[in-house]
Amino acid sequence: MSIKKRTIVILIADDDAEDRMLVKEALEENRLTNEIQFVENGEELLDYLHNKGRFSDKNQYPTPGLILLDLNMPKKDGREALKEIKSDEHLRVIPVVVLTTSKAEEDILRTYDLGVSSFITKPVTFAALVDVMKTLTKYWFEIVELPKP
To answer: Which of these, 63, 89, 91, 124, has the minimum number of CB atoms within 10 Å of its CB?
Structure first.
């Protein structure tokens, strides 16, 4: 059985520097070779996706194949950013996985209503995060067929 190699970019939107580092390390722990890009709030996320401002170089900031989205961010939170992504005909095909500390039923319902692909509550331990990233990457990069970016 051959594993399909994906050269897709993972875009992680999270304002917490420690969480960004932990997610990156958890992905590396799973020997994921995909390029990882980071943005720190919803405004940066949309600038990245539209190649605006400091993200104008499309070669340096290619369209991601998967977005990991924190809900609680400054300037524009994940809920607002998700709504904009899913209402844009070019961006809405990008799978968005919410990765957040929120366990609020309202957030779960609202984000699925807005078109999120999955909702994951951030695990409390690094070992659990590594396990989540292992499952997530296996699912999104080995099992699922994704649209070409």
So the answer is: 89
